[in-house]
Amino acid sequence: MKSDLVAGIDSSTQSTKVVVCDADTGEIVRTGRASHPEGTEVAPAAWWDAFREATDGLLDGVGAIGIGGQQHGMVTLDEAGEVVRPALLWNDTRSAKAAEDLGGELGAENWAKSVGSLPVASFTVTKLRWMAENEPELADRVARVLLPHDWLTWRLLGQDAEPVTDRGDASGTGYFSPSTGTYRQDLLAHAFGGRTPELPKVIGPAETAGHTPDGILVSAGTGDNMAAALGLELVPGDVVVSLGTSGTVFGVSETASADSSGIVAGFADATGRFLPLACTLNAARVLTATSAMLGVELAEFDKLALAAAPGSGGLTFLPYLDGERTPNLPDAKGTLFGLNRANMTPENLARAAVEGMLCGLAAGLDALVEQGLEVRRVLLIGGGAQSAAVRAVAPIVFGVPVVIPEVAEYVAVGAARQAAWALASSTEPPRWQEDHGYTPLEPTEADRAEGHRIQQRHLEARELGHGISAKPKED
Ligand SMILES: Nc1ncnc2c1ncn2[C@@H]1O[C@H](COP(=O)(O)OP(=O)(O)O)[C@@H](O)[C@H]1O
Ligand SMILES: O=C(CO)[C@@H](O)[C@H](O)COP(=O)(O)O
């Protein structure tokens, strides 16, 4: 008997990626891709165009489809369902002051307790405050607020459908409580100048959002990091480091987290559990920007970085090229420390870029451990994980075994797995991965010591350059 096919979509910052999988085994049978426009402010129609281009000719025989989308983006609609202004994306930092104000008005402890996270410029709630203050006439027209994946799901269903979301993506808004699974309308109204736009209905992990006009079942969808966790069939002890436009480090947990330092965001996952996560604004693009500066292709950049010794001859690169989110320095610029005539080589600079990018995530990993997350090994995914230099340096900087799962678009795979789950309407999602089964890259004792030194220098440079404490504060 021919089994059903399911499609998963990853509508992330730089592109839309599609996988079509066998619903029983997860085997990937077709893939597609289309680029998104540059910029941190994007018309949602561009995601729809990219969806259509990426799925062109791929959906024959597909019984269900799920969408994983970049988190946090603010999509505002008027009464007629028309977009009020281009969406502000997670990496748009114009709402930094609004974030600071909201933090001050309600207090860090309060935010952490209410929604599991502190509002930083990435979060939807801060973008709404920015809009209320800077575009009040447009804000008055907003009848509904959606996230990128909510909007795409709704567009797929047809505009008479009721907009839906899931608890994973909702947990990145700043007005949803992951622990109670309900919206905090009071926080939304507080941020948005008393306005109370409609929000999408939060449906369960295996619920059906509806059907496309062609009769394809559409699942709830979720945020891209939650979809990656679903695609990797993440279990406790496995921590993901994803190197896309953003760098993220996260793991699954049975309990909600509430980090009032703001380093760890206490998100929900796409299965009913939780997904504590730390996110940097600067990941794979640090590598592409540095290789462009050095005038070399990425393969040559890798060779340069691998030719330098660990520690980059004493160079420390704080790669805050697009500002930074963790640590919360939205206006920061990149800084290179420790130059002398002997160490100013392309090799050291390439390696310092890799080490600097990974050190930001190692600090996030430490914060997750402080929140009680078990870390047995790191699974390295995303575009940047294709770099040979990143693969070699990661075990040194993280100090734990690093596994590189077979190259695949795990966000799209997770969205497809959610679609298969909704199609089967089973209690548990289908098992697709036996085990990652790949030989971990184990750091030696000497690697761990070197990694510790590199990380210490990174934290000291942070303190020197940006006046922030190198060590987490004691309570
Ligand atoms: N071999 C490589 N070395 C370094 N960076 C790479 C490599 N291959 C792809 N990338 C980078 O990965 C990024 C895309 O990763 P991806 O996970 O698809 O991002 P996103 O999901 O944010 O759109 C791009 O910036 C791309 O240049
Ligand atoms: O803001 C976050 C996580 O909180 C980002 O991880 C976005 O979800 C964008 O993801 P990528 O496009 O980098 O995959």
Automatic annotation (TrEMBL):
Catalysed transformations (reactions): D-xylulose + ATP = D-xylulose 5-phosphate + ADP + H(+)
Ranges of residues in domain Carbohydrate kinase FGGY C-terminal: 240-423
Enzyme class: transferase
Biased composition annotated in UniProt, kind: Basic and acidic residues: 445-475
Enzyme Commission number: 2.7.1.17
A GO biological process held by the record: D-xylose metabolic process
InterPro entries recorded: ATPase_NBD, Carb_kinase_FGGY, Carb_kinase_FGGY_CS, FGGY_C, FGGY_Carb_Kinase, FGGY_N, Xylulokinase
Domain of life: Bacteria
Pfam families found in the cross-reference section: FGGY_C, FGGY_N
Keywords, sorted A to Z: ATP-binding, Carbohydrate metabolism, Kinase, Nucleotide-binding, Transferase, Xylose metabolism
Catalytic residue positions: 224 (proton acceptor)
Molecular function GO terms recorded: ATP binding; D-xylulokinase activity
Site (Important for activity): 10
Binding site for substrate: 71-72
Region Disordered: start-end pairs: 425-475
Residue ranges occupied by any Carbohydrate kinase FGGY N-terminal domain in the UniProt entry: 6-231
HAMAP family reported in the protein's UniProt record: XylB (MF_02220)
Record PANTHER family: SUGAR KINASE, XYLULOSE KINASE
Family, per entry: Belongs to the FGGY kinase family.
NCBIfam families membership: XylB (TIGR01312)
Role played: Catalyzes the phosphorylation of D-xylulose to D-xylulose 5-phosphate.
Protein name: Xylulose kinase
Organism: Amycolatopsis azurea DSM 43854
Taxon lineage: Bacteria, Bacillati, Actinomycetota, Actinomycetes, Pseudonocardiales
